[in-house]
Each structure stands twice: as C-alpha cells, then as structure tokens.
Design a protein that fits this description.
The structure holds 3 protein chains of 3 kinds.
Chain A (H helix, E strand, L loop, with lengths): L11 H18 L3 E5 L2 H10 L9 E5 L4 H4 L2 H12 L3 E5 L12 H6 L4 E4 L3 H8 L5 E7 L1 H12 L6 E7 L2 H10 L8 E4 H7 L5 H7 L3 E4 L3 H16 L5 E3 L11 H10 E8 L3 E10 L8 H4 L1 H7 L13 H5 L23 H4 L4 H8 L16
Parallel strand pairs in A: 1-2, 1-7, 3-4, 3-5, 5-6, 7-8, 8-9
Antiparallel strand pairs in A: 10-11
Chain B lengths: L3 H5 L10 H11 L6 H4 L5 E5 L2 E10 L5 E2 L2 E2 H15 L4 E12 L4 H18 L3 E9 L7 E11 L13 E4 L5 H10 L16 H11 L3 E5 L5 H13 L1 E6 L7 H10 L13 E4 L1 H12 L8 E8 L4 E5 L4 E3 L13
Parallel strand pairs in B: 5-6, 10-13
Antiparallel strand pairs in B: 1-2, 2-7, 3-4, 5-7, 8-11, 8-12, 9-11, 10-12, 13-14
Chain C lengths: L4 E9 L2 E6 L2 E6 L12 E5 L2 E6 L1 H14 L21
Classes of the chains: A alpha/beta, B alpha+beta, C alpha+beta.
Amino acid sequence: MNYPPRLEFRNPAQGRALQQRLQRAVDRAGREVTVMHVCGSHEQAMARYGLRSSFPSDLRVLMGPGCPVCVTDAPEIDACIALAAQGLRVLTYGDMLRVPGRALSLADAKAAGARVDVIYAATQATEIAKQSSEPVVFFATGFETTAVATAALLLQNPPENLQVLSAHKWVPAAMEVVAATADSQVEGFLAAGHAAAITGYGLFEPLVQRHQLPVVVAGFEPLDILAGLVELVELAIDKKAQVVNAFPRCVSRDGNPKALRALREVFELGDGQWRGIAEIADGNLKLRPEFAKWDASLTYAETLRSVAELPERPWASDCRCGAILSGQSEPSDCKLFGQECRPEAPVGACMVSSEGACRIWFEHGLDGHHRQRRVGPSPA
Amino acid sequence: MKTPFADQFIAAKHGAGGPAMRALIGSVFLADVEDSEVLAMDDGAAIPFGDQWLVVTTDAHVVHPVFFPGGDIGRLSVCGVVNDLAMMGACDVLALTSSVILEEGFSIELLRRIHASTQQACREAGAKILAGDTKVMGRGEVDQIVLSTTGIGVTRRVIRGGGLQPGDAVVITGTLGDHGLAVLSARHSLGLQGDLLSDVAPLNGLIRQVLLAGGAGIHALKDPTRGGVTAALSEMAERAGVAIVLQQQALPMSDAGRAASELLGIDPLSVANEGKALIGVHPDQLQAVLQALHSHPLGQAAAHIGQVHASEKPALLIDTGFGQRRLFEKDAEPLPRIC
Amino acid sequence: MCLGAPGQIIEMQGTTAIVDFWGVRRQVALDVVDEAVAVGDFVLVHVGFAIRRIPAEELDETLAYFAAMSEEDLEGWQPPGADRSQGDPL
C-alpha cells in the first residue's frame, strides 16, 4: 500500500519559493527580526531538513522552552530513578532514558541493574500492567498532547498496579513567562501544531492581547515551518498582534474538546519547576485526587521524600538556560558552556536534549544563527 | 566533568560503535600497542602472504531479540565477518571459526535453528566454519547466546575505509536502515505490522562484482553497521581528511523502513545495516559500478548518494533540498522518540 | 515537542483502529479523537492515540496553498549564505 502522497509536504521547489518569501519579508523590515518557536519538534524538523542554513541572515529563530525532555526537572527524573532503585519496574518514553537527573540518568540506573523499559505508545503501559502482578511505574512525561494519552489511559480504569508518575507540563504557562520577561527580544511565537490540535488556537488569544505579540500555529513538515515563519515575520514587522493558524489541516480554533475534557477530568494545573528555567505558575499537570490510587507520587510518597534531599549539582546556580530560552542570552554567554556543562554531563536544560540550543551549539559549532557555510554547489 | 559512575563502569555507549567505544579501545586496548596495522582500527588486519594479503577479522555477536524479522543471530554472525572481510577486498573466504557461549536453559531446538541459519549463510557466502568452541554459563550470567566468529580471507589488493579521494562518488548498495529499524521494532514490541525486515546478508559476492567493474577506481569500502551510514561515513571522512556531502533525495529507502523511521522519529542514517556497503568510487567508474550493482540481487536499490570534496577539516554533510546540515555520530543507539 | 504521524484508517474495531502509515500498520486508540471517524479517514496519531481527524478537504487546500506559493518567480534566487564555490567548506 502506497502512502497517500497528499500527507507529505516536502517539495524542495516549493520550499525555495517559501525561503524566497521569507527573505523578502525580512528585507522589508530592514533590521534584525527575532522570533521564537516553543517546540522541540520544530527544532528537530529544522535540523532534519537543514532549514536554518537557508534562513535570512537577519532572522533569528530562537528555541524557547518547548522541549519536554529539556524542561523535565532533574528531581522529577531522580524521583523516577528512586522508584526504579527500590526494585520497581519503570516504563519510560525513549526520549527520557538518557536525560540525567542530578547524578544519574534512567539509562545509568538500568546499567546498574534497575528494571527500566522503553515504551513508544501510552497504551503499552496498560498492556504491560495487565500482564504483571507487581506494580508498574509509568513515567508520564511530555506536554499537553502527550498528557491527553495519559488521561485517556486512566479514564479506561486500568489495573491499580499501573502507577503513574506525572511530570506532564502545560506549555501555554511557559509562553506566558517568556512573553512577560521585560527585556525579551522576542517579537512573536511560532506555536506547536500538535499541541494546538488539542488546545485549539483560540487558547493563544489572551496571550496575544496581553503582550501584543503575534502567534502563528505551524505544522512540522518543512513547508509548514517555512510557511509559518513567513506569516510570523510579516505579522511581527507590521506589529499585528493576532493569532494565525498556518496548520488548518490539524488545528481548529477550539481544538479537540473531547481530549480537553479528558485532560481536565484527570489533571489539574499546579506550579512546578521547569529545568533550568524557573518555577512556572500553573506549568505542571498533576493528577486529581480522584485518581489517587494510580498516582505514584502518593503511593510512594515516602521514597520520594528522600529525593528532595539529593544535593543540587554544584554549578546549577550559574546556569543561564532561563536567559537563553527567553532570548536574552546566547549559549556562549554562559560560563559553564562547554566547560562544566557538556552533552555527557549537562547542567542545564539546553544541553540536555539533542534539540537544546546549547547542545546544538556545542555539537555543531554554530554561530548565533546556527548557520554554517555550504559545501559543494548550491541547489539550482 | 563526568560523573564517577561514567568513569568507572562500562555503559551501553561503549559498545555502540561511536566515539565512546573508540575512546575505550584507545585508552584500554591500544594504550600499549605500537603496531600500525592494529592502530589503524580498520575492519580487519591485512598480513602479507606471498604476492597476496591474508585478511583476518573477528566479531562477537549479541542481539536482542535473538530471532528478529528477516534473520537471527546465526545468520548475523556469519554475515558480520564475511562482510568485514569483503570491505577490505577479501571476497574469497578461506575459513571461519565460531565460538558459542550459551546461557543455561537455552532451548536446544532454538540452537538447532540458529545453526541451520548459520550454515545457510555460509552457503550463500561460499564459506565454511572449520573450527568452533562451545561454553555454557549459568542462568543470568549471559543473555541467552553470544556468538563470536573469526574469518580469514585473501585478496590481491587491500581496500581501506579511509581511501576516499576528492571527486569520488559515494554509492550505497541498497536501502538504508532496515536491520536496525527491524530489530528496534521487535525489541521494543512496537506492534508495527508490515514487511519491515532486516537486510542481513553476505556481501562478498556483490563486492566481487563491484571490484571487477570498478577496478582501481574503487577507493574505499565500508559496511555501515552500528551507528549506520552516519558513523561509517564520518569515520571514512575523518581518515581520508575529506568532506562528504550526501543528497537526501538520493537516499534509497524501503517503504517499511521509511515508515518505521518516520513513526519512531529515528534517523535512518544512524541505524545499523547488516547487508549494505558504502563505496567510494572514482567518477569514471561510477556508471560501471552502478550497473554491476543493479544486475546483482543484493544491489537492486543501489544508488549514488553523495560526493567527496577536498576540505581542511573532515566533515559529513547532507543536502536536504531545503538546506544543508552536518551529520554527527552518536554515542548511543537511537531510541523511539515521542517528541 | 510531540511527534505526530498522519495515517489512514484501514480497519476499525470498537474504540481501536488499524492505521496505515507509509505502508506499515499499527493499532491506534480512538478514545480521544475529536469526531466520528470511519475507514478511509486520515487521522493524526501521537503515542498510540488518534488526536484529530484530518479532513481531506483541508489536505487539498494545504496542497493548493503550497502549489500557489511555488508559482512565484524563482529565477536567479539562491538561499542566503549559499556558496557556489567548491573550496574549503569549513
């Protein structure tokens, strides 16, 4: 069976047309334009397709706090490791396996004998719990899109040996923090299409009004990202504070009410630390009391209390991730960058994930625009 | 600053074929070695033998699961070694030896199946196992089965992974990433249904045809196993001191391999192949080599995927059609992603 | 932040469906999809759950939008920073 070609938007000729439009838009501004995306998958797609190498030189596309791997706090990882160290079987998405807590990662714990398994679909957690007579801890990480799947699992009334350790986060809260940063240079946000498929683009309207910044919802095909950036740059230089949906095939104004209902039924918002950034008001998704019997943070409260006392990494207070993610600093401004903070032993969020700004700078040796000179002939 | 843990103990990354593994080999195994043949860290070693070269290579095989779609550890253990010999130009395999370490409780019926598949791969490669050894360890002391194979081959001309020259074309003999994606899907019980099969196959017959067609124009050979095409080409670029630029649009992929890589968020360039070779060939011989590949059953999907450029610093880049980016070796096998 | 894959429903059994992605099939939960779906529909899938029905007409509109974009005059344009020389790259 051939994949329907109309689900793919990867035509390089169309991409060049959009790159040209983007160049014209930035030329019209006649100055540097700074926008921010808030989605690790956008960075991933930009990296995969090499989009940054063709951005106009006066366009800065910053990477905001949009990668759940980056912003899951070290103590949250340590909590999961503590449960694994107690002999419990732990299930995690592959993304989190190698992310270090304050001392170890789940991969380190696994190497030391802990039972840690990678799952790919949330439904596997229930399947594994059903086949097991002992408790199974599901380390539930990710933003609202992924939290919806966790909510749906719990609404299916799974066996009680499924224990959910929620580190789910709510992105709009972090966008609010960045937008409210007084000296932020960000002129507009490229919002994450898949999260907006759940929340709807209407969710961004209050933020747009409050901070007078445009928000463009974009998808993840290379053409989606380029088209989204064209829209965003044009809104930014015209100082039009509005929400534009550049991903209509997956996003509506109201989003997915059924998924939102499930999300609200299972989770409530709570304050929480985002790694290397700040304590974000209403930034975390916590299980409601009605779901206490599946809540690993309650079931194993005793074990988890000991985690709080782990020492912070010695240089954590020098970390500039918060400033980097809000567009005020660049990785090279941080004195830890490439010294104490390296990919194999990251201090801050931006060095943790392969999509983190510091990680990309470190590995690719890139300049402020993540750009590099081409090799060989240019495309015709 | 590494954690004490990372300094003192072996971790999975030390076997992933990337920088951490090379660092470990350098700091432990090669610390007191002066022989340049060994220090070359090539796929095998070449020893002068009359007017020819004896090529020796060895490989320990562990795979989870032991039986995977498209193959098993037995087939893998033969192909791994036969292919390492072929990558140095030794397409005639003189002998193989095989040692097996079994976990107490392993099924003899499964062992028979593994043996049958080992013998089948030997027939395909025109190779024979002439010596072997069997050990058993207690339950939990080893994961089911470990197969360690050594191969000896002979060639008139030794080819090196690092022989690339500016101007060379880079060719791959077939679709990318099938083995790694098939094993990964089976290992994590990802529930993918479709014809996602490992490509594990002995390449010596195919490479013989390539060497006949390309002659002295074949400058470099390497099989993109652990770490995939990215690791293999990074190493080739590093050794030759050149830049390689790949063309995304030219990369051949099976439908199922492509589907799995999109669904799991895994770069097909960074996962293992067990039946593919990368060839650096002078442009004058490119068409003849492609023709030879396309007329062999294992080379149907062969494609010219990139170009070698002179460069002060070695580099591996890819032109995506939207832009250009560098490819970097990773220290760990990729995992399925959700974000 | 969230890897989503579009696929086509080829079979339905209650609240689960078999979805085809580029020729590979996987079981997908339909618990939270936003509207009724049927065999032949396109859905966006994340961590094993369909989170949105993708209307076919929106796909056509997106295709048309990108096609219209590419009709612009591209002659003589190249990405900024593009270097036609084959000299030292780095």
